[in-house]
Fold this sequence. Notes:
The protein is an alpha+beta fold. It is built from 19 helices and 14 strands. Helices cover 38% and strands 15% of the residues.
Amino acid sequence: MKKVANSITALLLLSILSACGGNGGGEKATNADHTENTNTGTNIKNSSTADEHKLGSKPLTLTFYSTSGTLPDTEFKTLIADPIHAKYPKVTIERITPAATTTPEEVLTTHTPDIIYSTSTTHQRIKRTGVYEDLRGLIDQYQFDTSRIKPILWNYIEELGDNGEIFAIPFNSNQHVLYYNKDIFDKFGVEYPTSEQLTWDQVLETAKKLTRTENGVHYVGLSVDNLTGLAKGLGLPYLDRETGNAAIDTPEWHRIFELNKQIFEIPGYVSRDGVWEYGRDQFMKEQTVAMRVTWLANMVGPLEELRQQGIEFNWDIAPAPNFEDQLGKTREAQIHSLSINTQSQHKEEAFQVIAEILSDEGQRILSRNGRVPAIINPELVKEYGLEIPVLQGKTVQNVFVGEPLQEHYFHPYETEISARLTEAAADMAVNGLDVNSAIRKATEAINKDVESLRATIGEQ
């Protein structure tokens, strides 16, 4: 793995000097304008064409598309578009924003975004479209130092390629925390969570005190993203990596189902009209959920947008809970990543933008605005949340209590079958199904889905 150059500009200047004066300094000189990298298929330009692709040397608009994950326009501008334009005034990052009902596959057949933002929920789907450029050639060309990236993020990226390809660069580490509404705690005279990581048993006891109906308002003590969210505390895959069949009939998954069943059985949790699932809107808009354990990025950006609309309430952050024997660990850290389109006409410039975002300064902007950096730099942790108004006065150090797990390997069919886990949760919450029956029913449904997917998508 090559050491990173001080800056892209310095690298290009060195290339020019090398081309003019031989290979002084021991670097091997290129022999042609277009040396083909046989490992990746990426054309590597030598110094005679370097200026043509030097970021900021000419007016340029790069298009950007988010396939999944929470990235409000406020964050897109603050974290990506504005910093790049400020440093390179001739460069504009323009976001593609299709209709909400349009699938990523549909967007990618009608648009050619230069930079693609993805998360684990769509990596495999986008990979199947063939639009992910293998970045190994560009990593070598620009001497991008991948050792700066946190291992739990980079290891996941390496597993995404089938033959060593690198399809993405981590953008940030999306970790889990416990959000809580102080107003609801105050209303019912319940003590706030502390900065000490709680066990699920402790959280359940608190949730029981906060789940009630008062003056016609149905309050819920706890939202956890149900089976899929809880499973991230143990790093559990949904499908067997080798066979592709359901992998939820295990002691670990039984433990997750049992915990979710306990939550549903809190008196008053399922509303009289059968509502059993509670999420972001119930926490921050309706303000009827007292505690919500979820992704950091799922809430910070939207809460800031809500604040900008003049809507604020009294909330804070506590460490994500876990089972007693798992204390010290939180949940899987989700990878939000940046990729380059194979059809882009500006691959080199797009990679330079990504490299800039992954620089210390680029990642400092992320950290100061509420995203956990993807790179190893302890100093950035100290600056977390300093510039985003919605985090002022919050106990932001609790974001870093506990060790996040590496995100489990996502089987190519995992996203497609995840709805079966939602159905299983509904069966337990509304239909009163016991854990063993819910697991058995979900396993059968998942395996049928996988059989159909093999026929339509093909064996992966």
